[in-house]
Amino acid sequence: MEMEQLRKEFNQLLANINEHSERFTDHEHLPALEVSVMMSKIGKLLEVATILKHTVKELEENKKNLKKEATIISVQESVVSISEPEADLEPEIIETPKIEEVAPKEEQSKIVEAKQEEIKPEPTKPVEKSSVGEKFSHLPLSSLKDAFSLNDRYLFANELFKKDMALFNETIKTIDSCGSLINAQEHLNAIKTTLNWDNESDYVVTFYQLVERRFL
């Protein structure tokens, strides 16, 4: 990624985390599911910060190496200039091919090429994702119903099921009775289409993750 894009993504994530947190400032207790969502966002923020730090370090190293290369080229040009004979002191050299001039330039070219090979940056190693939210997202659930606290039920019913608690409970019951993840996702996709869910919503993403954990 470009540096500016990384910074933009970092700032957007940070603003989103602050906005999410402020929504529950007046609540005495923060729902467990909200904590899980916040942990997932913070994990993503740490991931982007690590990539940003690595990119900045790589750019700084490239600048240092380019500066060293420019210094070497400048020194070599000075050496070539000093080694060239003056026409006034040795006029007979003018009549012969200037072989002496060719050798330093070829040598200079080889040195520059060698230095360029030396300063090739090492390939960027992919940053491993190891956020706490991701670790918990791989734990299996014996029952989807048990994954929701009382507060979570009201939150998801309000956000995704248009405050219809009966529809929420019926959906959970149906998914728990499905024989496979594919069947559960087909049912959930039908609900999503009917209720016009936003795929970018944190509640939608978390709901799908819980369904996947139910069938691990």
Overview of the molecule:
This protein has 216 residues and is mostly helical. The protein folds into 2 domains: 3-118; 138-214, no CATH class. The protein contains 8 helices and no strands. It has helices spanning 3-22, 32-83, 99-118, 132-136, 150-160, 165-176, 181-195, 202-214. Helix 1 packs antiparallel against helix 2. The longest helix is centred in the first third of the chain and has 52 residues, at 32-83. It is elongated. The two termini are 33 Å apart. The relative contact order is 0.10.
Keywords:
216 residues, mainly alpha, 2 domains, 8 helices, 69% helix, 0% strand
Write the layout of secondary structure elements.
Layout: H1 3-22, H2 32-83, H3 99-118, H4 132-136, H5 150-160, H6 165-176, H7 181-195, H8 202-214
Helix pairs in contact: 1-2, 2-3, 6-7, 7-8
- Tally of domains: 2
Please tally the β strands and state the result: 0
Counting DSSP H or I runs of 4 or more residues, the number of helices is 8
Mean pLDDT: 77
Overall morphology:
elongated
Low-confidence stretches: 124-136
